[in-house]
Amino acid sequence: MSRTFEDLVAEADAADVSGWDFSWLDGRATEERPSWGYQRLMGERLAGASAGLDIQTGGGEVLAGAAAYPPTMVATESWPPNVAKATGLLHPRGVVVVADPDEPPLPFADGAFDLVTSRHPATVWWTEIARVLRPGGTYFAQHVGPETVFELIEFFLGPLSGDLRRKRHPDEETAQARAAGLEIADVRMERLRMEFFDVGAVVYFLRKVIWTVPGFTVAEYRQRLRDLHGLIEAEGPFVAHSSRTLIEARKPVTARS
């Protein structure tokens, strides 16, 4: 027997959404993964670095998957529950976690790191990344790409403008990186299928990924959630798509003339 709307929503609304672990959604939602395997590639680069910085580390779960760290390893995070979670996970392995508001300037000296990494940063401050990189240093990251979960966003907010559809496009991001003085070594994008099997999965996702529907609360969107519950009951999983961009940029060894 299927669970009621009220039951599914109440459960998801009470769930802990701290950190960046999505295991609560196991069996309730799926998302294809990019073919390149960011965590593995990140780990390979960390093993060869002398000083690393992971920006917007979340709860530290992705960084914790690396087998080895450089002699100096720092992570930043802005959300207090995630700062605490990342500290507990990463400090035992020698990683310093710094509470940072995710706006310039980064609290580090010029040229402090030869590797800067980030997985799904909410904002990308290219000038700051270039500043803290040593000449010859690398920024290696996986970004959320354009039109991610737009099907879900538009279900709640209505049609979005063309400008929003271009936001975070690889062409724009590489142009911004070059304007900050970085050289692009690699850029790839893939579009990936997502499925939500019940309305509770949607509630959990929107509470956790807070920029998807800004200001989302169950109380504010209860009727639309009820509509979505009926749609899933009648037609099956709600299908959306994410996009992911892998980007590797390097700071030139010598300054441009």
Automatic annotation (TrEMBL):
Q: Does the keyword Zinc apply?
A: no
> What GO molecular functions are on record for this protein?
S-adenosylmethionine-dependent methyltransferase activity
Q: Do the record's keywords include Transferase?
A: yes
What transmembrane ranges does the database entry give?
none
User: Which InterPro entries would you find in this protein's record?
Assistant: 23S_rRNA_MeTrnsfrase_RlmA (IPR052939), Methyltransf_11 (IPR013216), SAM-dependent_MTases_sf (IPR029063)
- Which keywords annotate this record? Methyltransferase, Transferase
Per its record, how is this protein called by name? Answer: Class I SAM-dependent methyltransferase
Q: Which Pfam families match?
A: Methyltransf_11 (PF08241)
Domain of life, source organism: Bacteria
Biological process, per Gene Ontology: methylation
Every Methyltransferase type domain range: 53-140
